[in-house]
Each structure stands twice: as C-alpha cells, then as structure tokens.
Structures
1.
Amino acid sequence: MPTVTSKFTSPKSASLRETFPMPEPQIAAFSVEKAYRKGDHLVPVLHGVDVSVRKGEFLSIVGQSGSGKSTLLHLLGLLDAPDIGEVQLDGQRIDDLPSRTRDELRNRVFGFVFQFYHLLPELSLMENVLSPLMIRHSIWGYWKRRREYQDRAREMIDRVGLGHRLTHKPSELSGGEMQRAAIARSLVAHPEILLADEPTGNLDARTGREIIDLLCKLNEQEQLTIIMVTHDQAIAAQAHRTVKLCEGRIVPMSDAA
Amino acid sequence: MYKLLLCQRYLRSRYIALASIISVTLGVATMIVVNAVMAGFSSEMRLRIQGILSDIIIETRSYDGEADAELHKQMIERLIGPYVAGVTSTVEVYGMLSFEYGGQYIHHPVTLIGIDPGSKSEVGPLMDYLQSYHKQDNGPDSAKAERTKDHKPDWSLTPGANDYRQHIAALARDKAIFLKELKQQRHGGAEQGGEAPAAPNSEDPFNGMEREEGNAVVAEANLGELQTGRLYVGSNLISFPHMDEATNQTRTIYMVRPGNDVKVSTVTAGTPKPAYFDATVVDVFKSGMSEYDSNLVFCNLEYLQHVRKMVTPNPDGTESRAITSVQIKLKDYHDSDKVMKILRNEFPADRYTVRTWEQKQGPLLAAVDVESSILNILLFLIIAVAGFGILAIFFMIVVEKTRDIGILKALGASSTGVMSIFLSYGLSLGIVGSGVGVMAGLLFVYYINQIEAFITFVTGRKVFDEKIYYFKTIPTHIDALTIFWVAVGAITIAVLASVLPARRAARLQPVRALRYE
C-alpha cells in the first residue's frame, strides 16, 4: 500500500486512504491555468481547466498537438505547478506542497509512462524497473529489502512479458519492449494513479494495441486509476471516459463504458 | 541507492570525465615527486649541516678567540650540564691551502678549523664524513673501507695511507740518491777533464733538479716522518671529477691523497702576522655539502693554536689555550630553546654569538623552505586548473543527462538526491584521480634513479649531474602527511568543481528536463 509523508500526513506508514476519507473524486484539477514563457512572449496553454477522476477510472484526454493535454497531465502528476487554480488528491490540495513532499507523492502515488519511454540508458531493464524503489529508500533501507523488491520487480517484468530481458540495456530493447518496461517501472512502487502521456505514440498499431490492452487489464484487475493522454481517438475509446482539450479548454466528449 | 548506482555507471560509461581527471592525476603525481625530492635534498642537507655544525654553536666575535678553552667547558657544564651530550672547542680562521700538482702549486682559500677529533666526533657524526670509514667507489680506484666505526677518529694515517707515504718517500729517496750520484759523476768528470765547473746550462734537463738537491737530501732524512700539522681536507679542495671518454664514466681524480704533505698559511692571533706550516693530509672530508667540502680544512687543534700563537702560559706553569667557538650537542634538540636562553644570558653578546645550527644556516634553510612553498603553490595551481576542466566537462555531462535528470525527478528523486549524484561523481573522480596520482607519484619516487638513468640514456644528457649536486643518487624522502594533504586537496578541488554543475542539475524543472531534446 503506497504511503505519503508530507505536512498533511500522519504516520509515515499510514496510507492515503487510511489517513484521509475517500471523497470522490480521487484526483481533480480546478480552474487550472498555465502559461509558458517563450523568449519575450508568454504563451498561454491552459485556460481554467476543470477535470476530475474517480478512483479506478480510466480517463483519456484527447486533443490536437499544442492543445495542452500533456501540460494538464504534468500538472496532475505534480511535474509542474499551475499558475492559477489547484490540484487536489483525495480532496487535499497538493500543488502548493513543499517540493520535498511533492517529490515523495510522485514517487508513492503516481506512476508515469511517457511517449518516449524515458528509461535510464545506463541501467539494465531490471535496474530501471527498480529505480522508483531505489529512489524511495536510503541505501541501507533498500539493501535490507532488496530481495523483496527484486522479486516484486521480476514479477512486474514477467507481467509485461519481458522476463527474458532482465539484464538488457534499453538500447537493446525494441520500442514496444521499452514501453512495457516503462509500464513495469511505473507499477513497481504500487502507485494509486497511472499517468500515461501518449504511451502508444511511438509504437506501431499492433504494439500500441498490446500496450493499451495491458493498461485496460491493470485498470480492471487492480482498480488502478489511469489518466492517458493520446491524440488517437481509437485508442482513447478504450477508456471509460474521454475528455477533449481544445486550445487549453476542456470539452467532455463521452461517458463511454 | 540510485545515486551510487548511477554514479558508478557514469564513471564506467563516461571516459571523457576520466580524461578530465588526468590533469588531477598528473598534478598530484608531480606534487608528490617534487615534494619527495625537495624533502630528500632538504633533509640530507639539514642532516649534513647539523652533523658538521652540531646543535648549538657559541662563537667569539673575533678570530683571536677567547682565552681558556677549559674554562668555557666548565662554564657550559655548570650552566646546562644536564642537557648536554657532548662539547667540543674549535679554532676557526681563514687560511690558504697550497699543494703541488703537475709541477705547479695550487692554492685554495679555506676555512681552517682546529678540532679535537675525539670530542668532535661526540658532537657530530665526524666518522660519517671521513673517507677512511667508507668504501670507495671511484672507478678503478675502488677500495674497501680502511677503518671500522670502532676506531675513533684521530690524527694517525691509515695503513694504506702510511704505505703510500712510505712509497713516495722511497721514490724521493731514490731520486735524491740518483741526483747525488749524478752530481758526483759530473764533478769527477770535470776534475778528470781539468775543466772549470760549468755554469748552469739551461739546456741541461737535470739542471732544475740540481737545485732541488738540497731539499731532496733534507727530505731523505725526513720523509716517512709525519708533519706535526695534520689535516682532514675537504674533498672538493683536492679533487676534480673527470669524465673517462672510454668508459663514459665519471671518476674523481685526487690531486692530494692521505699521506701527502701540503702547505697551510694563515695569520696569527693578535696583531696579524703571516703564519705558515707544513701539514700531512691524514684523511679526506666529504659531507656531500659542496659549501663545506670545497671550503673546510680540519687541523689538529693544539698545533693550530700553537701556530697562531693562541697559547699563553699561566703564572702557575699551565698554559691557557684560546678558542674561537664551542660546539654543543644536546641530548634532545627540543631543549634548544631553553638552553639558548640560558646561554644567551651568560655569554655577553658583545663578545659571543650563540646560535643553533638552524639559526646559523638560517638564510639557506629559509631559502629552501620558500622554494618548497612556492613550488607547492604553483603545482597546486595545476590541480586547480584541472578543477576548471572538471567543471566544464561536468556541465557538459549535466546538459547531456538533462532528460535523465527529468526522469529521475518524475520518479520522485529530490533535488538534493540529484545534486548528490553529481557531487559523488565528482568525489569519485577526485578519489580515482588522486589515488592514481599518488600511486604514480610514489612509483616515480621509488624508481626515480632508474628513470633518471633512462632519460639520460635516451637524451644523452645527464639529468642529475653528481658533479653539481654531490649526491650519487637523487635523495628522496616521502612524508605521509604531505601525500595525505595533496590527495585531500585534489579531491576537494574535484568536489568543488562539481558543485556548480550539480546545483544546475538539481534546479532543473522535471517537465523542462523531460522535454529537453
């Protein structure tokens, strides 16, 4: 069970769910605005977006390039902070937490999958998958539990079908394999929410479908909340619900599934 | 954990960073070699100076000296008796050493020091500097040590030197007899021919010798007997190095050897008048300090006092002998400050100077210290320059790793964590760089003479010329503390150089880092 240590948590070992009552939604953004500075110009990306995701929901965010969908995902995953508005996790505002606490939330609550996989090239597949656990613990803390963690990582890697590739470096893997490795990495720390930014964007149709099937299975079997950004309507259709972003504003499209 | 893992992987995969620390390695190695050689020279030099000067030296301001050596000795015994390991009195004066070589007289200005070898060897390692106690390694003239340490230094000739003296005496005697016979023959021939004795003929090869006849006859009687004046002569005064073209080896040619007689001139005490005496060279003095070896002549104290008229009869029939300096060896040199204080109070400054050997050789030792510190500063600057190399390469690596830093941050790594990856990377490079540097430096120091021989062989020029330095081999002294500080300094520079790039890495925004192409 993932735990959170922050100024608003009680004991370190207590889970978010135990610490807080579970109001719906699990994660939400309220009127978030974000602009990036490019040279002398301020480029607005999001104009007061509201989005909320329930526990166990699979939400896809679609939109054209530059519509702000990735930015929204980054704001939800605490990779960036909104200029205006707030992000809430289980009813608690999290975007204004100290950076240490946000780092810890990223490690314990969120799992990330990126379009370009973003595996660390110097590490083997096994080490890449273990990296969130290594980041979580001190050397000694990790060393004590290394067997348990290695078993857990092996299990995750088996689950994504890469059990035979443990010692391979990312450069020795195919695109689909790298993305599956990235999914194994995002799951090894038992996150509550998986944030996937165009997970199939760099893959062929068949491999992309495999990845989406894997995500759907995770969502169904483990009630994992998934927020996925994609520009592919067909892939987005696999999600419970799809929202469309257009020029930084959100437009609900369907409540499928 | 991930910090160590990444740091280790970066070390293995980024050879460019290892290249950046080659300058650290070279800097560290150079500092160790230079310090070892300088410390070697310095400690050899200090040892030799201290050996010759002893710990504390009380000198009279005038070369006339102060009367009564015995009184001085008693005074020192009374004042600082418990601290003292040995005391010796000397007479020091400038003089001139003259000897005949190749048919010409050679003169050297010298410092003439009257010593008592027995007590002198108690205040300093006199034996270490006398050649009769050492194996001679001088090309074909190599010989075993003639004396063992059991034999206290005195003014007698070694058996070898005595044989040599007898040999040259016999030659001189033969020459004298030959000249005598020749003269008799000539006189006889003249008488037979009824001719008047011929005026000296400039074309006659024996003409010059004839004039020496008187001396030779005198020598016939005296040769073999030692002169009353006895000397230990500084080796560089009576020798010169000679490069043998055939063997390409340098050997020392001695113009005077133990057993030969030389002439010494100086002045008397009081109103200066020339004083002159013949003396037998008993031994050769070689300390390795060219300043001493080409300047000092040790003479028997009593005879020098006699020649310089420093002996005055006392009313009670005894005699008072003047001295110009007293050398004191302490049991523990750490007491020198205390002892100096007592002595300075008792020996009036208008008549005596009381100094430790370090004070007496102050400028020389200070020069060595200054030289050593300046070299260290300059060499440390090399390592500092290497620090900028690390800084640049680390910035490059941080830029190259921007996306990885973004990934780590997305996975929850803190800024401090990311920073410590690069700091420990810098630390590891520093440790590897200075570790290799220390090993290379120590190996260089260990094999320095072989390396010198190799460079000499390759370039054909002597790197370390013993003619200049008077050491057969390059002296080195390794100080563990110096090595420790050099290594710590280099590691600190490597870590400091990685601070800025590490801070930059830590401050990267995860989103920007992830988007970085």
2.
Amino acid sequence: MGFELREIHKHFGSVRANNGVNLSVASGELHGLLGENGAGKSTLMKVLSGFHQKTSGEILVDGESIDLRSPADAIEHGIGMLHQDPLVFLPFTVLDNFLIGSPGPERLNRRAAARELATLADRFGFSFDPDTPTRRLTVGERQQLEILRLLWLGARVLILDEPTTGISAPQRLKLFATLKELAAEGMSVVFVSHKLEEVEEICERVTIIRAGTVVGERDLPCPAAELVELMFGGEVEIGERPVVGLGPPRLTVSDLTVRDRMLSVEGFNLEVAEGEVIGFAGLEGSGQRIVLDALSGLRSANGGTITVNGRDLTKVGYRGYLDGGVQFLPAGRLEEGLVAGLTLTEHFVLSSRSGAFLIDWEGALAETVEGIAEYSVKGTPDSTAESLSGGNQQRLLLAMLQDNLEVLLMEHPTRGLDIESAAWVWEQLLRRREDGTAIVFASADLDELLEYSDRILVFFAGGVLAEVDARTSSVDELGHLIGGKVTS
Amino acid sequence: MTKSKVSRVLLVFVALALVAAACGGDSEPVDAEGFTFGMILVGPQNDHGWSQAHYEAGQYVAELTGATMLVQDKVNPADLPEKTVDQVAADLIAEGAQLVFATSDDMRDGVLLAAEQNPDIPMIWSSGDSAWEDGKAFAELDNLGNVMGKMEFGKMIAGCAAGLTTQTGSIGYVGPLVNDETQRLVNSAFLGARYCWEEYRGETSPLEFTVTWIGFWFNIPGFTLDPTQVANEFLDSGADVLISGIDTTEALVEAGKRASEGEAVWAVPYDFEGACAEAPDICLGTPYFNWGPAYLEIVNSVVNDDFKAEWQWNGPDWDNITDNTKTAVGWLSGDGLSSGASSDLDDFISGLADGDINLFTGPLSYQDGSVYLEDGEEATEFQIWYTEQLLEGITGESAGE
Amino acid sequence: MNFADLWKRSRIGIIAVALALVVGILLLLVAGANPFEALGVIIDGSLGSSIRIGDTLMVWAPLVLAAAGLLITFAAGLWNIGVEGQITFGAIAASLVAREVSGPTWLIVTLALLAGLFGGAFWALLAGLLRTYGKVNEIFGGLGLHFVATALAVYLVLGPWKRAGVASTSGTEPFPRESWLPTVGSTRLSWLAIVVAVASVFGVFYLLRGTRFGLRLKAVGKNMRSAFLLGIPTGPYMLAAFALGGGLAGLAGAIQATGFHHKLVPSISGGYGFLGILVAMLAGYAARWIAPIAFVFAMLAVGSTLLPLKLGLDSSVGGVLQGVLVLFTVLAQGWQSRRRNRADEAALGPPEPPVIPGEVG
C-alpha cells in the first residue's frame, strides 16, 4: 500500500512546522526521512498518523484522498506510527498493551490475542511473556511489542520516529532486519531519523526536510556529504580527538556495591585520572545508571568506597558531592536537570552558589546574557527551559555547571541532538577535560563511545563484562560485548 | 414528605388558624397591619423540623394579624460564616423589623449583643433562659424575652408510646449533643417509657433504654456519628422502638426500611407535626413544638406597647393537646400505634393533664448514683430545666463535668 | 501597552466574567428576581454604609490570608488542602491565649495573633512531615488533619471549654473584651486584621519574586527532581512552605476567633480555606490579583445575605452566584491553557526526543 502527501501545511499559530510538503512512498519501499532537529519531520509524520490535523493539503492512500481526525482513523486506513517513546502503559502487562486500542466488541478475547501475539512474535524472532509487566521490558522490546501491535491492527504503512534512540546495538540490528522483511512483504516503511548512517544503512530512498519544506530527494546510496549539505545547508566537520596527557587519579572507586530493586552491581572498581574520559557501554539498565547514581551521591553505596582527590565521599550524600566538585547530568534534561516553567535567568540564579537571601535580578540578567552568548544558547533570558530545543537545553545545562569540576558524570550527553550540537557539546566537554576534569559518561551511541572515551567499560547484567581501550576497539567488538559475548 | 403534603399540612394549619381567629383564642389577634417582625432561623425554613416549626409560627402570626415577617434562615457559622447573629439582627432592623425572634439555643451571644446594641427593639430568644431571674444565666436586658415549650411532656408521651409498643423490652434513643435540655428530654422519654411498661403492661423485667449521642442536631459526615448507622445498630442489637431526639428523620426512615422487610420495629420522630409522613405505618406518633400561640401573644404585646422581657416556659393545652391555636407542645398519634396502646396512651395523657401522674417525683437518682429527687419530692422547674445527668436506668453517656 | 493588547491579554477573563454575569442574570430571572435590583442589593449590602464596608473587609481579611498562604504552598507544588484545618488550629491556639492570658489588649492581641501564626504553622508542618517523611500525599494528610482539627474544636467547645451549665455547639463563652481585636469606630472592622492581610500579600509577593528562597521553592514545585539535582534541599524547603502557608492560614483563624466570632465555634474556619483555594486559582497564582478577587468574593458573600430579606430569594442564591463565577473563570482558564499549550507546541516545533530513564527492567 503506497501513500502520497500533497502540499501539506501544518501551522501552529504563526509557526509553520510544515510548509507545503510533498512526499510519496510506494508499496514495499523503505523510505528515509532525514532532517535536523526541529526540521518538521515529526510533525509531518504526526499529520500522517492522525495525531495532528493538517492545516491544509491532501493525504492519499492508494490514490484515494482520506481525512484523518485521530490516530484511530489512521490505523483504520492502515497507517501506524511507532513513536520515539513507544506509547506503552508501563504498569500493564505485555498482553494488555497488545490489546489496547484494538477495535471490536468490548469483551476481549485474551486467549486468542495471546495466540496471535505469539504467532507474530515468532515470525520476527521476538519473544514475549504475555504476562510480564511492560515496565520490565527494555526500550527495544517495547518497540518490538508496539510494531507487532500495529501489524496486528492491520498497519500497511509503518512510520518509525527516531526508532534507534535508546536501544542497544543488537536490538538495532534486529529492528533493521525486521523492517527489511516487512518491506519485502509490501509494507511501506517511513524511517525518520537525523542519523545519516542509519538512513544510509537501510533505506532505498530518502527525503530531506529542512525548515518545514522538502529540500531534496535522493536514491540511496548517495554521497554522505551531499546529504549533510542538504540537511544543514553546509557541511559540518567533526573534530579530531585531541591528545591529552593524563594526570594523577581524580576519582577512585573500590569494591563498590550498589543496588536498586531490580539490579545489583557488586565489587565495582574504577580509577579515573585527571583529564581522563571513561565511557560506559551496555544495554539500557545493565548497571551504568546506578553506578553513575552512586558516583554522584544520588544513591548511597551499599558497600565499598568512593574517593575524589583522596577524600572519602562515600557517605556525604548528594550535596556533599556537589560541594566536593562532582556533578552529574542525567539524560532527562527537562526531568533531571532543568525546571520547565522557569526562565533562563532563573536557572542561572538557581545554579549560582550564592547564599544571599535577596536576588540581584540585574546582576543575574547580566550573567545570563553573558552565559547565553558564551554557550551560544538559542534563547533569551526570558525564555523558559522547555521552550528550548534539546540541543539548547544541553547547552544551558553545560552553562550551569560549576567551573573547575573535579569529576563530571553524564548520561547520554548527546542523545537526540543533531550532529552540529553533538559536536559542540563534546567540544565543551573536551575543554573541561583539558582543565583536568575527569569525565565519566554512559551512552548507547557506540560511535560516540569510541570517538571520545579513553577507556570503555562494557556493562552486562549488573557487572562489568569487559574494559576496552577505545583507541583499539571497534563498533563490532563493542556490539558483541554489549550483547554479552566475550570475543577473544 | 412531598411538596403537596407540605402544602396540605399548611392548608390545614391556615384553616385551623382562621377558625381560631373566628372563635378567639387566649389572646385576641390585634390588627398589626404595617408591623414588621424579623425571624432568625438556625436551619433552612423548610427543614421539616425545628426551624420550619418557627417559620410556620411566624406565618401563622402574620396571617392572623396582617403583620409582615422578614426571614433570614440558615444562620449558623457553617452555613453563613460571613455573618453573626447580631449582624443579621441589625440587617433585619435596618429592613424595618420592630421585633426580632432569634430561634435557637445557639444564638445566645449574638442575641444578647443585639439586644444590648438595640435597646429599643424587643427581641425574643427562643429556648433560652436569659430572662429567667431565678435561672443560672440571667441577663438584665429589658428588651429580651424567652419562650420555650415544655417538651418534656411530649417526650413522656413519646416514651409511653414506645413502652406500650416494644416487644423486646429494648428502646433506642438517637440523641443529638449532650446538654441540659437534651438530657432533660431523654430523661422524660425514659420516665414515660418505664411508667407505661410497668403500669399498663405489668412488666416486671427492667426496660432497656439506651441513648447514643450523634454529636449534633443533624448528621455532618465525618464530624458526627451517622444517625443512619446508629439507628441500624440499635435495631441490630435488639431494640425494636427508636425514639429520635435529632432534627432529621433517619430513625424513622431506617425503621421503616426494616419493617418493609418484615421486621417488627417502630419509631417516634420529633419536632415537626408532619414528621410521620416518611414511614406512616410504623410511626407511633410525633411530639412537636407549636410556637404560634406564644409568638402571637408577643406580637400583640409589642403592638399594644406592653411587652415585658419575660421567660416563658409554656405547657401543653391539656384540653386538647393537638389544638394548635393554644397548645405550646403537641402530640399527634401515628398509624403505627395499636388501638390497645392508643387507649392506654390516652389514659396516660389524661393522667398527665389532671396531675395524677407526675413522673418527676422522687425517688429518682442520677446515673452516678447521686440523688436527683428524694422520695416523694416533686421536681421544681429549676431542677427540670437544669438537668445535670441522665437518670439511673438509662444506658448512655451523661455530660461530664 | 495599547488598548488592543490589553484586550488580547485579558479578553478571556472578560469573556468569563461576562458569561458568568449572563448566567447569573438568567438564574436570578428564573428565581423570580430583577437581576439589577439583586445586584443593587448586593452592592448596597456590602458597601452601603461604613458598617457594611467593615463587615465586608472582615470577610476579606481571612480570605486574603488563606489565599496568600496557599500561594506559597502552590509555588512549592503542594496541594495544601489541609488549609481549613490550619485555620481551625490557628483559631484554637489564639483562643487559648484569649481565654487564658490577662493583660492589656495590645499584649493579648499580639500574643493571640502569634499563637494563631505558630498554631497554623505547626498544623501545616504535621501535614508536611507526613508528606516528606511518611510518603502520605498532602491532600490526604491535610484532609485528615482538617478533620482532626475540627474534632478538636468540637471537643473543646463541648468539653473542657464548654459554657457553664450548657454545652452547646454555639461555641465557647465569648472572650473577655480585652482580647477582642480593636475596631474602628462603631464598625466591626479591625484595622489590625486589615494590616495583617495587606502585609501578607506584599510579603508573599516579594518572597516569591525577589528572594532566592522563593525561586528555589518554585523550582521545587515545578520539578522536584531537578531542584534536588541543583542542590536544593527539597524536603526542608517543602516543610518551610507548609510552615509559612499554614502560618498565614493560622493568622486567618486567629482573626476569625478574636476579631469576628469573639469565641471559638466548631466551624471557625468559615470555609475560607477552601474558598481561598479558589481565589488563588482564579488569581492565576499571582499575589497581585488576590486582594481584588477576594474582595469580589467577600462582597458577594456579605451582600447576598440580604437577598432573602429584600427580594425574598432563597438564601442559597448567593452561593449559587459565587459558584457560577468560579465555574466560568475556571473554564476560561482551562480554555486559555489549552490554547497556550497549542501555541507552545507550535513555538517548540516537534516535541523533543523522549527521555528514557535509566530504570532497570
């Protein structure tokens, strides 16, 4: 089943998110939709899947013009969308989630549905226990479940919005294989991404969107530089890794034990030198986050010691770590870092270590203007944090960091950022490293890990499976390790 | 009670009033065209209870004399937090009221203040004792009088009806909050019940008489006990007649539900003449207040310029306890009363009327064993008004000091 | 700002008030009253004489205090539904002083107001401790404590503080005159109550706008996790918000006891806590709108008590009019925020990539 979008406009107030987009995808085609953050890709796909209603334009499915008022309408016409954050009800079981949104009589035939789920899962080599709460699934598995659900509902057009965000390398490979199989069966697949390599890897054709309009359409393969130029209007250079001499140990972790309800990391040891960058690799939830939590004082250690510059911080609590020059930027910028609803100026006031009771708003404004300029944040002092794009939120967070940190911990430092912003973020991080800050970061992006780390610790099921030298390792090796296979 | 029934009761009321006007009662109604009096009610004017009785008395007076009544209802700190009684009195006076009735025990402070601030305006605090020189709380104010009905008679009759009817020998009393007045009424009901149980039915086993105080005059969820639940607990624990001392009719309603399921249970509501209507078949009768005659007299006195700040505690009209042109306290028997019990009850009432029966005669002891009345001693009004405890023989809580 | 801008910014409020007026007029017509006459009665009844203005302001003062206190807890993201209980407990504390302390008026009154302040703060802190350390949602904790405070007031009125001879829910014996808030002329208006209420509005305005404490409180309210990561001790800040908000509510209670009822009654709070929540919401949680909105409510409350007397309307009409006003304003705000959300969505472009918390399994 093919579809066509003609002259789609989607305006929010005065903002034109889509400004006359034309797109045509044939049956059985794997079509890429490429563009930097904010280009209008997601909006377009939400129009196609019924989440947004178009301002004007026409949607045709198999040559027939249709009118979509809701996602339910869209799925009825065979259009299903897999969102960046799979729309899963976490407390529900796999089967409940599978059944949600299924049309038909109120009485659900659970047994039949379970059978169909098993059949579908078999076909693609997935495996689900229908009674597991979805909370226990990894993001990748949630995605798989969502794809099966859409197929079951009769989707013939499948839209995937940044599907590789937050899933592991093996899961990504599996996803790609599935998509190819679906296309071979005649499904139209739209793959939305800002990651060039991925689009190049699986798509046959790609449409590039910039500022709400289509700026080009290419058959793949096609030179990467050409695509980059279309996306950004100019080529971006990725800097080479600077060579930094490592100094004396900054952070020493010995025999650390840390647990949460689901997972326990035992006997973790790590020494990070001044100016060293350590990468944590692994499937989501293999222990990276709880170790980072322990290293930042957010979670108290169940055993072992953590010392920074020879000072034992094991028991001082989160604010003790802050005072000791240890800071952590979790992945959720608006959830764990910024405060939606507060302005940039207010953020700068909050991050300053001043203890004065009254706020000097004029001074704070001056400071903010300076910070905005220094970190090239696209926003005004009065902008609220949530009005910034992801890249600018990350810039703001970096601007709010203390100067001269001893240890900087980060989780997914460039997730969701376009190449330009990601490169800029690392420029800042590497500058801090030159000042002697020890950096520990977790990432799902293997290229990022390989490019910026000195050493990489691969987590698997709560333990460190391997430590590799980033200079000599490869995406292949890391991918295998992350999946739990030790190559030797 | 449906609206049409309310209006039927009102019609009867008005008809009676007109008859009374024609025949002439104790006090001839004056022509009070152009006279205005104010009525402050603690609850809604259509509460089928205490406040409605005052409201209808006011209507009765207005009907007979041609005076105008101004009504402000729901005057209590919960329903009307923004005004106190003295403010409402000031509003009424500003609107032209030449006489103000404050009709709740709860209005004491406000009406005292209002009387002090408006010395030229006569006022009545119903159910109060501020004008009783020999009372415990006399306040010297020339313009503030009190009116109260001797409901102890109504409650003795109610108790008697219960004592004549109970099969299990167990009576439950759903009480409001504990104070002198409510203890007085519980004691009266108990005395009436015990008397009729022993004298007319010849029972020798002791009568079980239990009171549960819900904490206020009506149900306030989360704050009082739930009278519905209290009523059901009584019925579950063997009581087969409920006497209500609260403003609302839960006891009657619950007993009615049980009766429709085949149980042999009865109830006696309170306050309002038409209260039996909620479950007429098992209603033994209602003791009620009838403020009309007293209020008429007071309006007359103000119009005739001979108002005196008196404390009145008016008894029933023993010639005809349901004569609403005269009696201050009435009793209306219900359909639930058997004919045998009915004749015993009539006998009891006439005994009360001619003084043969005086239940407030010693020996009587309080719950804690202390003597209330010596052997042969008859209670004074003071002893009855200021009842400190429940009597021995009643199960339930007395006011602690 | 020119006229067009002003219209654009406030049109929703104006439409809401207009709709409320229309529905109110219809209701009055159904009730058989002339709406303009009714409006006249309300205005005359609340502002018609110096005494009536005084009466209105004595309703306004506790309402403003409750609403101002609620702004602090709202800023911290807390639904301090227990505000009624805090008013009640403040009133109880003030009553204790008014009953037990003898001395010159200035001393008793000062002590009574302080007792109200600390009493309300204490009661709110209990809800706060339940919230921060007991993991009991402040809505449930607050409601529970509200019932406890009311039960305590009833117990005192019917028990230890009952009047000689007669226990009645009409309240305790009136306080000695020395412990009544001093009034202006022959009105019931206490200048002290007004001073306290006005000071609370200014205090809350500057606290939330100009101080580091206020800003941090807002951060805690909008995103506790981020606030904690920014190094703000969130638990103590929430407790401080409870204490300050409860303190102002307690002051309202002290004024109710020593300036209005002059005794402790079971329903001493007058419902001003719940009404204060509405005032705070209608004010859009902005301190500068509290005083005028509370004044409209006070006018309606005081003025509409004359509707039954003058026009023979049912005494519940005033409450219904208040309800209509609240309903339409809340509807208008809902509408406005829906529109704003759409506009925000537009300004942002497509939503950001999701955050997958590092939760395990």
